[in-house]
Write a structure and sequence with these properties.
Strand order of the largest sheet: 13-14-10-12-11-16
Number of helices: 8
Oligomer: single chain
Strand content: 15-25%
Helix content: 25-40%
Length: 300
């Protein structure tokens, strides 16, 4: 079990040659390398947010599971915080505050990193709004892009600036920074806009959960604004056959999306070492979500 030192912390990396994405031969060591490469971009979006991990120790073709609790053997330098549950009790969860913690999580085969829309200690007060656009076949991310543009323009009418990222799977996320606001109010506002989208774009949008309603349309999932819910973080890998990434995209890319693969990014887009690699070309497109000066207020 090789040891590595990351920012003064010694970590034991287990089975770095273990293949986690068999379709492309992407190993646990590759996962560690990927998260190390994007650390400067992903860490600001994770910091002070309790993390939920999708772990796939047997790889993406094996059993994966969502892990919220602090795993046995967690080093004492990993930041652990108390988080309230819906039943009033508390759980202990990890917050990914630094590169050693990010590498430690990657070594657990925590492929996916999910976080809520609020930061500790401001629990339950959202600093961002999110819509998860999920296409029902035969609709694809192409239809999601049309809905995303509608949401961007609708949010702008209420003085909110929006950005987009791929989910890393089939869909698209639309996000807007907020001055910290009670999550219930944010969830209510998001639901109203989802209903409005369904009314204005009835052939394209559905705002209700049942899958039988989604065929050929885009489900505008507003529910991830609830204080107990989480969303895939920007730059997280996904436990899909290939190591796809939840990737920030420009609105020009959204407008120009004509095929599903146009906005399907894998870890290679960030780790290929090419001077045109995505982060070198764009920087963090979601950096404005971290800028308090750009945070808006909900109407009313």
């Amino acid at each position: 079990m090789p040891n590595t030192v990351v920012e003064g912390r010694t970590l034991s990396l287990s089975r770095p040659d273990k293949v986690l994405y068999p379709e492309v031969g992407f190993t646990k060591g590759d996962v560690v390398d990927y998260y190390t490469t994007v650390a400067d971009a992903i860490l600001p979006h994770l910091r002070d947010r309790p993390a939920s991990f999708v772990r796939a120790p047997a790889g993406v073709t094996g059993k994966s599971f969502m892990a919220k609790h602090v795993p046995p053997g967690t080093p004492n330098w990993v930041t652990v915080r108390e988080v309230h549950r819906i039943d009033g009790r508390t759980d202990r969860q990890v917050t990914v505050q630094d590169l050693p913690t990010l590498v430690w999580a990657a070594n657990l085969a925590a492929l996916e990193l999910h976080v809520p829309q609020w930061r500790l200690p401001d629990e339950g007060r959202a600093d961002r709004l999110v819509f998860d656009l999920d296409p029902g076949a035969p609709a694809t991310i192409v239809e999601c892009c049309a809905v995303a543009e509608w949401l961007r323009d609708r949010l702008a009418r209420d003085g909110l600036e929006a950005w987009a990222k791929t989910s890393g799977s089939k869909g698209l996320h639309v996000l807007a920074p907020l001055r910290p606001t009670d999550s219930e109010a944010v969830a209510g506002y998001a639901e109203r806009l989802a209903r409005e989208a369904a009314e204005e774009l009835p052939e394209l949008v559905v705002h209700r959960v049942p899958r039988r309603l989604r065929k050929g349309r885009v489900f505008v999932d507003h529910g991830q604004n609830a204080w107990t819910r989480t969303t895939a973080a920007p730059y997280t890998l996904r436990a899909t056959p290939r190591p796809t990434v939840s990737t920030p995209v420009t609105w020009d890319e959204v407008a120009g999306c004509e095929r599903p693969d146009d906005l399907l990014f894998t870890a290679d887009a960030f780790t290929a070492g090419d001077p045109t690699a995505r982060l070198e070309r764009h920087g963090d497109l979601l950096d404005p979500l971290l800028d308090a000066a750009r945070a808006g207020r909900l109407p009313g």
